[in-house]
Amino acid sequence: MKKSGLYLLILLSLSIFSCLDFGLDYNSTEPSDERISQAKQILYLQPQLEMEILGMKYLGSGIDDALWFAFHVSGKSIEDIFLPELLSMDVIQKNQKPQHEEGLDWWNDQGENWTSYQYQLPLFKYLTVYQKESINGSIFLIFWHES
Questions:
Q1: Which of 98, 24, 23, 28 lies closest to 56 in space, CA to CA?
Q2: How much is the pTM?
Q3: What is the rounded distance in angstroms from the CA atom of residue 26 to the CA atom of residue 81?
Q4: 22 vs 85: CA distance, rounded Å
Q5: Where do the DSSP E strands lie in the chain?
Q6: Given CB 3.0 to 4.6 Å as the disulfide criterion, which of 63, 64, 128, 134 pairs with 146?
Q7: Exposed e or buried b per residue across 3-35, where buried means at least 16 C-beta atoms within 10 angstroms of its C-beta
Q8: How far, in Å, are 66, 70, 100, 146 from residue 91 at the CA level?
Q9: Helices (H) and strands (E) in the chain, counts
């Protein structure tokens, strides 16, 4: 009986401590190619999309992950930027203003006049796309999170 209690305690300890290891947080204006590739996958961006990265922040250390991603593209249509799977989903909310994020100048310093769309993704995930026309293209701020 003592052995089974010990095994149960070890199993319980491992499950609790593994649940507390949520992942790494990351914040950069120069993310690696690997991080950009991961962000493209999470955000339903076309894999071959070329962009100027303004910044990326990933929170993986909590219960629910979140990703902020900002970039500039030149002269692209929305179909050239996002995968068809996203564009075929229903928009659940429009025309929100990006929320101020403490310490993210690359997110906060983009001015006014945004068009936005929020999508509910599978498995209780959400994606909000903010788009603003610039002199030679568009600026996108994308916020993805789990709920």
A1: 28
A2: 0.81
A3: 24
A4: 28
A5: 26-28, 52-59, 66-73, 91-94, 115-121, 125-134, 137-146
A6: 64
A7: eeeeeeeeeeeeeeeeeeeeeeebeeeebeeeb
A8: 19, 20, 22, 17
A9: 5, 7
Quick one: tokens of 143?
């916020």
Residue 85 one-letter amino acid:
E
Partners of 66 in beta bridges: 59, 145
Over residues 37-48, the pLDDT tens digits come to 999 999 999 999
Task: Give residues with Cβ within 8 angstroms of 83, minimum separation 6.
Answer: 44, 45, 46
Q: Any bridge partners for residue 59, and if so which?
A: 66
Q: Answer whether 117's CB lies under 8 Å from 128's CB.
A: yes
pLDDT digits (tens, 9 = 90+) for 70-86: 999 998 888 999 999 99
Token pair in block for residue 47? 């894999």
